[in-house]
Structure formats: C-alpha cells, structure tokens
Amino acid sequence: MASMAPSAVLPPQFQFAPAVTPGDSGDCGRQETRRRRDGFAVVETLPAHIDNKRGTSGSPIKVVANYFRLLSMPQCCIHQYHVEFTPTVESSRMRRALLVDYMDMFDKCLVFDGMSDLKSPKRLNQDITEVFPQRRTDGKIICVRFKWVQELAPFNPELLRLFNTQMRRNLERLDFVQINRYFFDKRAVASIPQHALELWQGLVTAIGQHDAGVLLVTDTLHKVLRRDSVFDLMSQIQHVPNYKNECVKRVAGCIVMTPYNNKTYRVDDIDWDENPACTFETKEGSKTYADYYRMRANVSVMRDLAQHTRVEPSKRVRNLLEFMDRINNNDAIRNDMDSWGIRFDDSLVRIDARVLPPEKVMQGSNAYRYSAATADFSRETRDRPLHVAVAVESWIVLCHRREEANVTEFVRTLMSVCPPMGVKISQPRLVLLDDDRPSGFVEALRQLARAGNIQLALIVLPNNRKDRYDLIKKEACVDLGLHTQVILARTIGNRKNIRSVATKVAVQLNCKLGGEAWCLEIPLVSTMVIGYDTYRDSSSPHRSAGAFVASINKSLTWWYSRVSFHDTHEWLGYSLASLLRDALRKYSQCNDGASPDRIIFFRDGVSDGQIPQTTRVFSHFVSTGDDAASVLEV
C-alpha cells in the first residue's frame, strides 16, 4: 500500500478556476471577450475534517509506480467543438479522413476523438462553421459542421480527455496496432513455436488527476494468438471417432480473431450444412464465404504463459522507460505535443510507501498469518476444518453419459476430501443424459426439482458454450432457486490434478450452501460493505442491469445480493435507495435488530467526471431522512 508524501499539493481540480477578465483571454493573440465559464467546481471526495490520508502502520519502503508526471500544461486557451456529419458517417476512420483537408482551418493543431469531439487552440470566426468534403469511397458530398462549445478553463476535466486522445495518437505514430480497445506493438511480437503461438505485447494508458498533479498511468498487457486456424484444428482430429461432436467440443465457446480487421468473435456452434460456396447477405449484396474470408483466421486464446506475461518488476520498469523514451524522442510526436505545450517526465513517479503486516486468517478454531513474500495461505488451509462447515445431504450430479467414468472418479475423490474439512457429505444421485444440448440439461433440472427437495446440483458440461451455461444458470438460479456448481469435463478428466480440483470444488460447495471457508480479523465493527456495478443489457439496448451485494454479518462472510433493471441514463439507478433499504433490513434480521454504524460503498468504473453525479445520488438519499440512510456518510 502506498501513500503520497505530505508535501503533495491538493489536485488543481479541487479548486475553482479563476474567472477571465476582458482582454485577458490568453488565446494566442485574440483579445476580445470570450464566453468562458468563470469557473467550475469539482466535488471534494475527502471529508472536510481529514487533512491527511497517510496511515502509520507497516514498515516504510521507497517504490516507483507505473506513472509518469505531466511536466507542462497547455499555456494558450483551448477551444472545444462538437462535430456533426450529415449524412451520418459510422466509421471513425472515415470521419478522420474527411477532416484531413481542413487541418489548415485549425492551424494544423487539433485533436479529434474520431466521434464528435474536437479541440484546438484555434478559435474559428463563426460559432458554427460548415464544410463539404467529398467522400472518396463513393464520391458523396458530406456536410461537416463544427459547432463551438466552450473555451476550456485551466484544469477543466475536458483537458484530460484531450490528453488521452493525444496519447492514442502518439501510440498510432509509434505504429502500435489497435485490437478492440487496446494498442499492441507489432515490433514486440514473441513467437512460441513449440505451442504454435504468438505473444503480442501492448500498453494500456490513461491520464488523470491525482494528488501530485496530472499523471500518465501505463501498464503492459498481452494478447495470445494461435498461429493455427480452426481449420487446422479440425484437420488434426478428422480421424477420431465422433468427429463432428469432437469438433464442436473443441471449438464451441472459443474466441476467434479475424486478422484483416483485428476483431474477435465467439464461436457458438458449427453449421455442418453450410460450406464456403454458400452465400450470405452483406451491405454490398450476396457474397460467398470464400469470397469474404480471404485471410487465415487466428484464434485468440488464453493459455498458461506465465513465463512470458508475468514480467518481473525490473523488466516492467525498463519496458515503461523505453516506451516513454520512444514518445519523447519521436519527431512527429514531439511536434504534436509541443504545439499543445504538453511534456512528460522521463522518469517514473517515486513514492514513499508502507509494507503492511500480513492479515490474520481465522479458520475454525485456528488463526494464522500467511507469508507476506508470497501472499499465499493455501498451504495453511489444508487439512484444517473450514471456518463454518455445512452438511451436503441431498444433491445430484448431472452429466452426459460419455462422462460417466470421469465423473464417478471425481465424486469419489470429492467425498474423500470433504471429511477433513469438516464437511459431511452424502452419496449423490448420478443422473446421466443422452442429449448434451442445452435443452436437455434444463429439462432434466426441471424434472429433478419437481421430484423432491434438492440441496445442490453439480453439473458437468462438455465444453464452455456460453449459451448452454447461461440457460442452465438462468433456469437454476432464477426459475428453480437451486444452488449449482458447474464444471467442465476436461477439468476433471486430468487424474493428476483431480484431488486439487476436488478440494477447491468442496470449498465452493460449502460456501454456496451457507458455510464459510475462512475469514479475516476485521477491525471495523458493525460495518456494512456494499458493491454495485451496472452492465448494459444485450437483449435491450436501452436498459441496464444493476448488480448489488451487501455484507450482512460482522466477519463479512455473509452477503445479500439483488439485481435491478433500469434505463441506461439512470446510471446508479433510482432503485439504489430500495436496494440499500432492503439490505439494511436483512442486516438487522441477522444481527438481533442492530443496524451497521457505517457503510463502505464500492462502485466500479466511476470516472472523475462521474464523481459529482455519484455524490448527488447519495446526498439525495441521505437528505430524504430515511432511517436506512442515517448511517450513510457522503
């Protein structure tokens, strides 16, 4: 855990930007009065009574972080424009191409995000300016409208957007290749011929405001590409029995990448009735698959490549320093950044940090501390009773008939590892299916649930087909209210690791049925911890699903969970108050009528620009005077 030195200044965005008086616009020679925001306030997230965020426990240590400091900010005024294309142009690459001939309008100094946001030190003479470039692909005239939005005050959060857009341009100038959201260095591709794999090294970057100023955070990431294709894989197994079933088993659920556009797709199934001569409809009309796919398909897979992807700290530091050296010594990038007045430090940020002592882990009547060097306590947990063990009495095992031998051996191993953990487990009922289609598993679950009281269903699937997994989980969790543990057949097919797998499954079964594997010593008594996240509902583009979890006991091992649906613009959702109220009622039921003294709320993915909105949601909730809100501090 690290903390900044006490001499670090408060971030500039926590202050009001000074108003600009007439004649002091600073717009590179323009002196007339501008419509400029006199200032903007960013919500302070640090409580007023706290002036120091540094702790005292642990031993001091000096470390470097994967951050580079921004040494200089733009000195001239930056203008923001909204760009509209009529008719609509979907391709961001085409949008950029349409603006190339109009760079001189902005004195060749602009940053365009490829969508609708453009920033430049140049103020156009009119608030709305229209140009009419010709699209080269079809000769069509496109109306491009530049609408002046605002002149950005110093430390306006929009400047961070400018910096991040410029950084993406920098990566493109370094010949990085964008695959989905991330950029990869095509000069840093490692070949692993013994596995027919390629390892692409990339970078993820983000520029944001921190206690020590504006910093660029960088980190390495990797993408593993198989050098063979799906066709190669099918050719290798063409002589095995049940060839078609084996192909589906190997391919279904995999992610494939088409290298001609660097896009990835999930394989759900194989249509054996189609062939490369068959046609499908495109925007240009009917095409055969053979005409459409002119390049070999690579499959993006994740394998155990720890020796390549787990970079040791010294090499990671060296990679980041080399990256910044390439940024600062590239002529095109330096010219771009000089025109904005942006410059990054050559060195990584140094921090005074603390190494915290290991946590005390409690497991039943035992308490122990793990090794801080490895942060692993799996060895200490072995051959000890779980913290709270439950009995597994009425359960079933559901699998396809061809997996019977492996499943029987796995169940035998599972029943042998449970007693030392304190878990009493009865012999399960083994249900064999002749059909491994999703509907076969679902119908079997329905019949078994109607037949009697089932505590748990352990389901063995032939592969990781997403539609089958989703359908089973929906039926079991939503419709039947049945605890399930899903395992892939290949996971239990390796006899060498079967005992380790069985041990991990036993721990999961115990926890799913209300038991506890272990717990930590929590110094904050009477505390509720909440986690909340949202996900765009793929079945309804105008709706989001919210996932809510809240701890309901003092050791943070029991959790209350809910799902809510709401319009995407509601973000945190009006349902939050109802969810929190219900969670507090559940907490009270489990704690003899007591309420928590404090609530710690975790919300993943909140950017700096969303902090004011988040605070407004909680402030409104607290201001309602609801008893459920009285313990929540914003």
Automatic annotation (TrEMBL):
Instruction: Enumerate the InterPro entries for this protein.
Output: PAZ_dom, PAZ_dom_sf, Piwi, RNaseH-like_sf, RNaseH_sf
* Boundaries of every PAZ domain copy: 229-328
User: GO molecular function terms here?
Assistant: RNA binding
* Piwi domain segment(s): 456-634
* BP GO terms, sorted: piRNA processing
Instruction: Indicate the family of this protein.
Output: Belongs to the argonaute family.
Q: What is this protein called?
A: Uncharacterized protein
Species for this entry: Amblyomma americanum
